[in-house]
Amino acid sequence: xxxxxxxxxxxxxxxxxxxxxxxxATLADIRRRVARRARALGxxxxxxxxxxxxxxxxxxxxxxxxxxxLVINPAAYTHTSVAIRxxxxxxxxxxxxxxxxxxxxxxxxxHRSLSAPVCAGQICGFGPLSYELGLxxxxxxxxxxxKSAGKRP
Length: 153
Ligand code: CA2
Prior knowledge:
Layout: E1 2-7, H1 19-22, H2 27-41, E2 44-49, H3 53-62, E3 69-73, H4 82-91, E4 95-99, E5 121-124, H5 129-148
Parallel strand pairs: 1-2, 1-3, 3-4, 4-5
The structure holds ligand CA2.
């Protein structure tokens, strides 16, 4: 089973700036944590980051055949992107939205997620642990989907 992690704009800056909000872990550190948890779960993970909405839309669309589930931190696009929401809805893969920070405890404009309603659920506020929890949720959802389709995971 293969899971795709998608990271949105500016997450490449993690650990360098705004450490009071997002902590000191870099995206590479988080990727290593996810890889470790994936090994323990016996699943494969791919991990991408893009600052471009269209690239993210394309990666979601191309995921259908290769991946059992998606975990996405759309970053600022969470609050603005109808295109990413529509891509998640169209790909029809189990999808988990994740955030490092608790977006509901921050500025009003971060409280609304356009993508969360088309995801299975949202995990936010746990820092890098949100990524590991997102992986756990995605694996559980993918196994349930495979079971109900009568396939082996
Ligand atoms: O908490 C999260 O994971 C967010 O998705 C992070 C986004 C923010 O726009 C969302 O509202 C919540 C921001 C990602 C950019 O991260 C930076 C890291 C270091 C310096 C500047 C930005």
